[in-house]
Specification:
Elements: H1 10-21, E1 28-32, H2 39-51, H3 64-71, E2 78-81, H4 100-109, H5 115-121, H6 133-144, E3 153-158, H7 165-176, E4 182-188, H8 196-199, E5 203-206, H9 212-223, H10 227-237, H11 241-249, H12 257-270, H13 275-289, H14 293-314, H15 332-335, H16 344-359, H17 364-378
Parallel strand pairs: 1-4, 1-5, 2-3, 3-4
Helix pairs in contact: 1-2, 6-7, 9-10, 10-11, 12-13, 12-17, 13-17, 14-16, 16-17
């Protein structure tokens, strides 16, 4: 994967190429950026730049045979670690090595994809993946060997925030004093989710969401999208190229988040003094509780976005509104007046708390029922 193939992030590409050209390669770096911003493909391009001794800003020189290995992500000195869990094929002690075939397919087909896409790829969408302590043993074993081609070894740890405490503790010494010519590239979406002991040992690079023009141009050149449609999709994607592709190919229909959200807020509106609507909210909570924790987290993030969009519309910031509900008889303009400065902070807090508790394996039915009852009070606040 070449630097020239990466969307945007020109200042980071320039920084990485310059540091490699001058021989100042930090032994541990942390790439922080939102989903779809290109943290993973840029980490792979950087690894290729180092391992293949490529030169020049376009990353076109170097060893042709080495570059060819990267087309299949099969370079022997490039190692990957990513969140996994047990599935129908891997019954116990899952580690990244068990899923390398699916991983190579995943980054070949969808290098900008997110964590939930990966969980669906390996059929663990109803579980929460993690980088477990068995993985730390595998990392130490892989890096204890000499580099196959005599140069650098690169270890890319994708979604490093999914590393549990036991794993992090085993890797601390290795991160602080790695074997000679070993480079760690950790990737995460939020710096706040990284353990402080890991963070203190890494040089941090912050990635911004991609500009709309960069996404639109990519959709036109790579997906043969018309310029007008590409601009609309880029606006809706909010800097996330992965989301733009989902919107383009309409692949988010597996879970009808929009229908669930509208069903929820309508029941919350009716629930004031209406026992039947309370039963609807309980049924809704049971339905969402049955879809798996990762899907629940995705849905709650979608709800946060919808409330934020409604508030922006209520306060006249229409150019910032990108969501366009398609469910019959639901208009964001009619819903917006009920989301305002008197309730948005508490709504956001309750949704964030629900996310926190679900992520920590709380009882989803109880959490969602409690959230629904609180929403009936907040949504009617004048």
């Amino acid at each position: 994967m070449l630097f020239s193939q990466i969307l945007g992030q020109d200042h980071i590409k320039s920084h990485l190429a310059t540091s490699a050209d001058s021989g100042r390669i930090p032994h541990a770096q942390l790439f922080i950026g939102p989903e779809g911003s290109g943290t993973l493909p840029l980490a792979i391009a950087y690894a290729q730049y180092i391992l293949c001794s490529n030169t020049g800003g376009e990353n076109q020189g170097g060893n042709a045979a080495c570059n060819l290995k990267f087309e299949h992500f099969a370079h022997p000195d490039l190692h990957f670690v990513f969140p996994v869990a047990t599935n129908s094929d891997v019954k116990s002690h899952p580690v990244s090595a068990n899923f390398l075939k699916q991983w190579r397919e995943f980054i070949t087909e969808t290098p900008y994809a997110g964590l939930f896409d990966w969980y669906k790829k390996i059929d663990i969408a109803n579980k929460q993946g993690q980088i477990g302590v068995d993985e730390a043993t595998e990392i130490m074993k892989a890096l204890s060997l000499k580099a196959y081609e005599g140069g650098y070894k690169v270890m890319i740890i994708w979604m490093a925030d999914k590393m549990n405490t036991a794993t992090a503790n085993k890797l601390l010494k290795l991160l602080e004093e790695p074997p000679q010519k070993t480079v760690f590239i950790l990737i995460a979406e939020s710096q706040d989710d990284i353990l402080q002991t890991i963070l203190s040992r890494c040089q941090v690079l912050q990635f911004n969401a991609l500009p709309e023009k960069v996404i639109a141009d990519a959709l036109v050149s790579r997906e043969n999208t018309s310029p007008n449609a590409a601009m609309k999709l880029a606006h809706q994607a909010q800097g996330n190229y992965n989301k733009a592709l989902h919107l383009l190919h309409k692949t988010e229909d597996e879970f009808p988040f929009e229908e669930w959200f509208i069903m929820w807020v309508r029941a919350a509106f009716r629930a004031k003094g209406n026992a039947a609507a309370i039963h609807d909210l309980i049924s809704w909570s049971e339905q969402i509780a049955g879809i798996g924790r990762e899907a629940q987290k995705q849905f709650l993030n979608y709800c946060i976005d919808m409330f934020r969009q409604a508030m922006l519309l209520n306060y006249g910031a229409k150019p910032l509104v990108y969501m366009e509900p398609t469910v019959d008889n639901f208009k964001l303009e009619k819903f917006a007046p009920f989301v305002n400065g008197t309730n948005i902070v508490e709504i956001f807090k309750e949704l964030s708390d629900a996310l926190y508790h679900i992520e920590r394996n709380g009882n989803a039915k109880i959490i969602l029922t409690d959230l629904s009852i609180k929403l009936t009070r907040l949504i009617h606040r004048k």
